[in-house]
Amino acid sequence: MHPWTFGPVLGTVLVVGACGIGHEGTAAHDPDAWSRGHAFRHLDRALDRVNASPEQRLHARMIIGRAAVDLEPWPDAGARMRESLVEAWRSDVPDREALHRQLDAEVEALRSLGHALVDDAVDLHHVFTREQRETLALGVR
Questions:
Q1: Percentage of the residues of the chain whose pLDDT score is greater than 90
Q2: What is the C-alpha R_g of the chain?
Q3: Confidence at residue 9, expressed as pLDDT on a 0 to 100 scale
């Protein structure tokens, strides 16, 4: 898997997938708002499936909202790296070290995002009862 596609996949699996919801792409007019709306629609259906209380719904929506915002910049990471590589190919003397530093920075940011998404998934664990978590986990399998 390419490093620039790993962030959205990781986020989907760990956070959004934890509630039995998925990600189907973006809309051209406002992809971030569309993705958040899409995630919240699926989240609401998952919460309906487990008869979540109003308090559980509030906490789950806050956690998923935080994760959705964290994921917004990741489609741009691949584009940035591709743009830098194309510039390097067009250059008479590509700066290998600069490309390595850029890649290292993207990977470090991805690692930080992954940790935040794992934290979000664990935070979701504490929102639901054991029975609700089991029902939600069935949607991930």
A1: 44
A2: 18
A3: 45
